[in-house]
Design brief:
Layout lengths: L1 E2 L2 E7 L2 E14 L18 E15 L4 E8 L3 E2 L18 E10 L2 E10 L5 H4 L7 E11 L4 E9 L21 E10 L4 E16 L14 E16 L4 E10 L9
Antiparallel strand pairs: 1-3, 2-3, 2-14, 3-4, 4-5, 4-6, 5-7, 7-8, 8-9, 9-10, 10-11, 11-12, 12-13, 13-14
Length: 262
Amino acid sequence: MLFSPTVSYRPTPCQSYGVAIILGYQTLKNNLATPNFTQTSGALRTDSATGVGARIGGLWDINRYVSFGASASTPVQFSKFKKYRDVLPRSFDLPPMFRLGTALHLGETDYSLDLKQIFFSQVRSLGDDLGWKNQTVLMFGVQHRLTPCLVVTAGYNHGNSPVRSNNVFLNSLIIPIARHHFTAGARYRLTPNWEMSVGAEFTPTVKMTDDGTGILGANGRGARIKNRDVGVLLGATYHFSKEREVRLFTNERSLMKKALPF
């Protein structure tokens, strides 16, 4: 779960900037075997870890029809799972990301196209231990203002799995193999200051099979994983003025922090 208090500032009507502190919380409960094929010391006991990171971004209106935006985030560095150090010696951090996007504004409808780069290989527990590669994600979104208070959104993004086919067995508990992601959501302005948002995400079922040429060699050959992902997001935004706002996103559930189009 991620909690991202965000502060944004609009120095002129054509540009705005924001900064966020990303706070994370993870839980783990399993009965994995250690490298010596003994039961983990965790033994199905629930353990937790906390993490922190940051994100900055900017948005510029080129003219009344076209906008351009960019953002970058640091890794979200988590503490280790103390009860499972015999099977998970490293923390499960979230990777740094960089994102560029543009939007076209036509009447009450906005169309956006974004490109996001996720640097999984810079997280040792993912790049070194699980063999993940960096991922490029292409995103398309549309939002339409139904009333002065209600905006509805929909989106699609595509990214090849960061898991290579020769490391399927190592990733059998994480399953980050989805390629196609569909999202929908809405924002509603309750008062001049308060705005609420809700969103949902769905990924179709996808399968992968280990070809036996990875870190575990023939020991992993034939391992198969199957994934379908469903995520939800609830959010609240408080607008202090036309220039400043604070966003409080809570209850965000998603496989690896996929972006909803709002």
